Amino acid sequence: MAVYPRIRDLREDRDLSQKEIAKQLGMSQTGYSKYEIGENNIPTDILIKLALLYGTSIDYLLGLTDERKPYPAKRPSRS
């Protein structure tokens, strides 16, 4: 699955450590490292946080697209 190298590459592109990302996600460095090596699946809430942190889409993180730009924000519907 392409998600693991992508989250590592995005982190390294920003010169951030696993410990720094883990702190932003509210978890341990060990727990986060297991996502990067593919030992643990990444929960949806963490995928959302990573996409927001890196300014990309979950589809990009999951390897469903090569487009790094995020989708436009959803506007609240008017009732």
Structure notes:
With about 80 residues, the chain is mainly alpha-helical. It has a single domain, classed as lambda repressor-like DNA-binding domains (434 Repressor (Amino-terminal Domain), Orthogonal Bundle). It is about 55% helix and about 0% strand. Helix 2 crosses helix 3. The radius of gyration is 13 Å and the shape is globular. The model has no long low-confidence stretch (mean pLDDT about 90).
Layout of helices and strands:
Blueprint: H1 3-13, H2 18-25, H3 29-36, H4 44-54, H5 58-61
From the structure above, extract its key features.
79 residues, mainly alpha, 0% strand, globular, 434 Repressor (Amino-terminal Domain)
Characterize this entry briefly.
With 79 residues, this protein is an all-alpha fold. It contains five helices and no strands.
Structure summary, number of beta strands: 0
What ranges have pLDDT less than 50 throughout 5 or more consecutive residues? none
The CATH class: Mainly Alpha
CATH superfamily: lambda repressor-like DNA-binding domains
Q: Could you give the order of the helices and strands?
A: HHHHH
* Form type: globular
Radius of gyration: 13 Å
Query: Percent of residues in beta strands?
Result: under 5%
Helix run count: 5
Biggest sheet descriptor: none
The percentage helix is: 40-55%
Q: What structural category arises from helix and sheet content?
A: mainly alpha
Q: Indicate the CATH architecture.
A: Orthogonal Bundle
Indicate how many domains the architecture comprises: 1
At the third CATH level, what is the topology name?
A: 434 Repressor (Amino-terminal Domain)
Distance between the termini: 41 Å
Q: Mean pLDDT across all residues, rounded?
A: 90
